[in-house]
Design a protein that fits this description.
- The complex is a heterodimer of chains A (102) and B (624).
- Chain A is an alpha+beta fold and 102 residues long.
- Chain A has a single domain, classed as Roll (SH3 type barrels).
- Chain A is 14% helix and 33% strand.
- Chain A has two helices and seven strands; from the N terminus they run E-E-E-H-E-E-E-H-E.
- Chain A has helices at residues 38-47, 81-84; strands at residues 9-10, 16-19, 28-34, 54-60, 67-71, 76-79, 87-91.
- Chain A has a seven-stranded antiparallel beta sheet.
- The longest helix of chain A is centred in the middle third of the chain and has 10 residues, at 38-47.
- Chain B has three domains: 11-216, 3-Layer(aba) Sandwich (Rossmann fold); 236-368 and 445-474, no CATH class; 483-620, no CATH class.
- Helix content of chain B is 59%, strand content 7%.
- Chain B has helices at 23-31, 80-93, 109-120, 133-138, 145-152, 166-179, 192-199, 207-222, 227-269, 273-309, 311-324, 333-338, 343-349, 356-365, 375-385, 391-418, 440-474, 490-502, 509-517, 524-532, 543-551, 563-575, 580-590, 594-620, and strands at 11-17, 36-37, 48-53, 59-64, 98-104, 126-130, 141-143, 156-158, 200-202, 429-431.
- In chain B, helix 3 (109-120) links the parallel strand 5 and strand 6.
- In chain B, helix 1 (23-31) crosses helix 6, helix 13 runs parallel beside helix 23 (580-590) and helix 19 (509-517) packs antiparallel against helix 20.
- Classes of the chains: A alpha+beta (102), B alpha/beta (624).
- The interface between A and B is large, with 38 and 46 residues.
- Strand 6 of chain A pairs antiparallel with strand 10 (429-431) of chain B.
Chain lengths: 102, 624
């Protein structure tokens, strides 16, 4: 029996994606698609969260609060969990990514 | 822009950019800080504008638009995006000469270039203004301006807004742009990320990485999942206390000044109705306005420092989950906290809430927070009806009253978000800006503007209502047949007429008069009751008044006021928005009479309902 931990969706190219809200801190991902209404999705893209954009999850607020992410364009954003649950991403690297002060 | 003031051919310069792009500093550099509120048809948000002289001597109007992310994807007309789009569309429709100046943070170039692409597609002359040149240099980066200009098809200028040469450079570039310039404007067909990568050069051997590490270190403490929220609440609490502690001496000084003026007025013209009108009605109102002024100025400075330093956005991140359950977000926390001292500056502080529906909800529930003006009445009631109980019991009552206010406000926001202010909110996606040192000039300009706005919008309303209330309490009703002084006043006549309505809550005409008087300001309740019961200076020493209230008897010898009356009065005071300053502040922030009327209606309905309920139910428990 296979245990599914995440909400995987089958993508067109056959690869699996997971929603952003499920990703652990310090992981690097790429936005695959955004499941929001057209207007809200377009606004999100204008803000800087669009298909193909790379993200690093810096931290999560307590008690299911927002995610703190950095985009590959250099922006940092707080994203509510319910919005993050609509952002499908691909794990870009298995490596744990920095951002802990050294 | 005022159509009567501006000639049709005068140039408008629209200053646009993402939030935190450095727009305010550029506006300050170009105008020297001078600003007035523009009058743009259909635009309900204040747009500040200032006059500038171009190098040729031609005059232009610089309009400072709110920070926004997109002009093509407007989620709601009331959002900053909607306002910006409405503004640009209105000017395009009028075919007025317009140059758009997009202020862009070069340390986050790719993000800003997405908006550049949208602006280029509007076919309006565009100047791209890269600011924070100093930060860019410190991070060890440089931008290939020429390559960027060619790729965009728009002129690009890199400046440090704090430099003295910035104004001349930018105004010359604006004029060139207005005249057409050598570049053929592009169509916005470029990939923002690739373009940013190709034009930003690293010349500083990892200085940016060092800054990022420093930011990460600070964030690891300030945004810690456990420590962070406590630090935030502590810092906000400290700020809230500082604002009111720092403002208190200044407010007292203003009140003393107005008090002296009242004494001098009475000395000069003697004690008569006209002097009383000037001294109590007009100067009393002016005193209220001036007493609020230091709070407004200091609060604005504190908020600007928090916002500009980058901490406010981080605080919203920390506290968001808690308030989200109630239909609010982390950005509402500060105004809600401030409301415990005074709703007036707290309502102004809701400007930090970007979602219009959430901001409106926060404004509508703020009057329910227990402000300091309620305390004299709470003290009077507790001293009158609960003096025989222990100090611990009375302290518990105080705490209970505070929590009743908080719980009712949170419950009200939950209900409002599902009824009156329901609708799709902006998804919580908040840009977390880099830590920056706020510019003192920008902070000072915002404080001056806030003070001016308060005087103009709230001050005038307070003065007018104060004068009206004086007349109601002082002018005798021509039809009044018995009593003297306040007993024959218009307010007393209304108070008696209201008795059938307020009797189920245990209120007689005298309490009704106190409530009418305290519509201007809650703290007036004690003084008004003192006048009715013939106790001088009841506000300073309420002890004789408490005895009079306890000893007041009906014709049958029973007490007029009982513990039940006290409880009902407390219930009413916790909930009813008896504060004309708050009503005026709601009017100013919502730019309509509909919402202040709604606030008065729903809080009075709640207050009356609760008072009746408490009075009637307490009888069932055998309380007398």
């Amino acid at each position: 029996m296979t245990t599914m931990t995440f909400n995987f969706d089958k993508l067109h190219d056959g690869m699996a994606s997971v929603v952003l809200s499920m990703i652990d801190s310090h992981r690097r991902v790429t936005i695959e698609r955004v499941d929001l209404e057209d207007e809200a999705g377009a606004w999100l893209a204008a803000v800087g969260l669009h298909e193909g954009e790379g993200l690093v999850i810096l931290r999560r607020a307590a008690l299911g609060g927002p995610l703190h992410v950095r985009t590959s364009s250099g922006g940092e954003f707080a994203i509510a969990r319910e919005v993050a649950a609509r952002i499908h991403v691909q794990d870009a690297s298995i490596d744990t990514v920095l951002l802990k002060p050294t | 822009m005022n159509a009567t003031r501006q000639s049709v051919s005068s140039l408008t310069i629209a200053l646009v950019g993402r939030p935190n792009s450095g727009k305010s500093s550029v506006y300050n550099a170009l105008t020297g800080g001078g600003a007035h509120v523009g009058n743009y048809p259909g635009i309900t948000v204040e747009i500040l504008e200032g006059n500038v002289a171009l190098p040729s001597g031609a005059k232009a109007v610089l309009a400072d638009l709110p920070g926004f992310y997109s002009v093509e994807n407007t989620v709601d007309k009331a959002t900053d995006e909607g306002v910006a789009r409405g503004f640009l569309d209105a000017l395009a429709l009028d075919e007025r000469p317009l140059v758009i100046v997009q202020v862009l943070d070069p340390t986050r170039l790719a993000l800003g270039l997405r908006l550049t692409a949208e602006l280029l597609r509007r076919n309006t002359p565009l100047l791209v203004l890269l600011t924070h040149a100093d930060v860019l240099r410190r991070e060890g980066h440089t931008v290939d301006i020429k390559a960027l200009e060619e790729a965009l098809g728009a002129p690009v200028v890199l400046v440090d807004a704090r430099s003295r040469t910035t104004k001349a450079i930018v105004l010359a570039a604006i004029e060139d742009c207005h005249r057409g310039g050598p570049l053929k404007q592009g169509d916005g067909a470029f990939d923002a990320s690739s373009l940013a990568r190709s034009v930003v050069k690293d010349v500083g051997s990892g200085r940016e990485l060092r800054r990022r590490r420093a930011t990460a270190q600070i964030d690891s403490v300030l945004l810690h999942p456990v420590v962070g929220p406590f630090l935030f609440i502590g810092i906000m609490g400290l700020l809230f206390a500082l604002v009111f502690l720092a403002a208190d001496p200044a407010s007292s000084f203003m009140e003393r000044l107005v008090g002296l003026a009242r004494i001098e007025l009475t000395r000069a013209f003697g004690k008569n109705l006209f002097t009383s009108f000037l001294a109590d009605g007009v100067l009393g109102g002016a005193g209220t306005v001036l007493a609020f002024m230091p709070q407004i100025v200091i609060l604005t400075i504190a908020l600007e420092l928090l916002e500009a330093s980058g901490y406010l956005a981080r605080g919203a991140f920390l506290i968001d989950r808690l308030l989200r359950a109630l239909g609010l977000s982390g950005r509402s926390f500060l105004p809600l906290l401030m409301g415990h001292a005074c709703a007036v500056p707290a309502i102004a502080a809701t400007r930090v809430v970007r979602d219009p529906r959430e901001r409106l909800t926060t404004i509508l529930v703020l009057p329910l927070m227990t402000c300091s003006a309620r305390l004299p009445t709470y003290s009077l009631v507790l001293a009158t009806f609960f003096s025989h109980r222990s100090a611990v019991f009375r302290s518990g009552m105080f705490v209970g009253l505070y929590f009743t206010g908080i719980l009712t406000a949170l419950l009200a926001s939950w209900v409002l978000r599902r009824t009156v202010t329901k609708g799709k909110g902006l998804p919580l996606v908040l840009e977390i800006p880099s830590y920056r040192l706020p510019s003192p000039r920008v902070v000072a300009r915002k404080a001056v503007l806030a003070a001016r706005r308060f005087l103009r919008d709230v001050g005038t309303t307070i003065l007018v209502v104060s004068a009206i209330l004086w007349m109601m309490l002082s002018v005798p009703m021509p039809t009044a047949r018995y009593g003297s002084g306040i007993e024959r006043s218009v307010a007393a006549t209304i108070g008696r007429a209201l008795e059938p309505l307020t009797r189920p809550a245990g209120f007689d005409w005298r309490i009704n008069v106190g409530l009418i008087g305290s519509f201007g300001a809650r703290e007036v309740m004690v003084g008004t009751m003192g006048v009715i019961f013939g106790v001088e200076n009841a506000a300073d020493d309420p002890a004789p008044l408490t005895s009079r209230l306890r000893e007041a008897k009906k014709a049958d010898g029973s007490a007029v006021y009982t513990t039940r009356t006290g409880l009902a009065l407390l219930a009413f005071f916790v909930l009813a928005c008896q504060c004309v300053s708050t009503v005026a502040a709601v009017k100013r922030e919502t730019r309509s009479w509909r919402w202040p009327a709604f606030v008065v209606a729903y809080t009075y309905a709640l207050g009356y309902g609760a008072a009746v309920l408490v009075y009637q139910v307490s009888a069932l428990f055998g309380i007398v």
